[in-house]
Request: fold
Amino acid sequence: MKTINRRIQAIAFYLFTLAVAYIPRRSSHRTGRFIGEKLYRILARRRNIAIDNITQALPYMKSHPSWSGQFETAEEIALATFINLGISVVEVCQLYHGRGNYLIDKMTVHGLDNFRRAAEKNCGVLCVSGHCGNWELVSLSFKKHLGHSVWAIARKQDNPFLNDIIEKMRMGYGNRVIYTKSALKQMLGVIRDKGVIGMLTDQAAGEQNGVLINFLGRKAWALKAPAVIAHKTGVPVIPVFGYRGNGTQHTITFHPEYTLNGDKSESCIEKDVKALSKYLEDYICTHPSEWYWIHRRWKMPKHTNPETTT
Reply:
């Protein structure tokens, strides 16, 4: 029965994405807004998480030099976040069914020379980003803009049939997938082969694999894997972020290669984690409605005392 249910879920997912993909292009943005507004009202738990996260971060963001000044309240940002997610859902459905190439073709790309200089070192490239803008679109556009297939780090879906569908769609744009359970070994192999890896590093990390930092005015565990891997292998690290302009116009920015601090010591790793997190923090303050506020980024182990970390 479990297998049957999973097959039904996968079929329903596929049919949903197919139906959305064939919405006329002229109506896709409006449809995405509608989906986002409905999700904002229906998903009360996720809405409340977003509003709580934003409420606690808002004073810090408003004092930040990168603050856009576009919004006044947490509720405004939360609603705009859901709208961005709704539009992104429509765009990803179009992409997955081969009807969204126009989104990639019309993208604006800044800093491409930063990536090229890193790639010319012939040591592979580690692109670090977050759940920003339409992050799936950014990932799927890499092959066209960079001329390289990208190995994306992703969590394997619990439903294997659903996972097969999503994996096939991603690979249709030249990407490959490394699943988180066996990520480190495979990442080192890709780097040895001078490949390109894309990694979203903004989810809450555990105490064993994270560093406790200040993030948007509060203590949070940040993933230290990118810094550890970079020190271990010498792979260049390029912060990459995409954001939505008006409607379906997207921009990707490749920042200059990040320079690591000193050696492989814990203190240097901590400095690197903090510095890389600053790129994300600056992005969020500039584009506050385009980050994934609806997860519990600031959750702490019960025995952690955040006041002891500076």
Residues 2-308 form one domain.
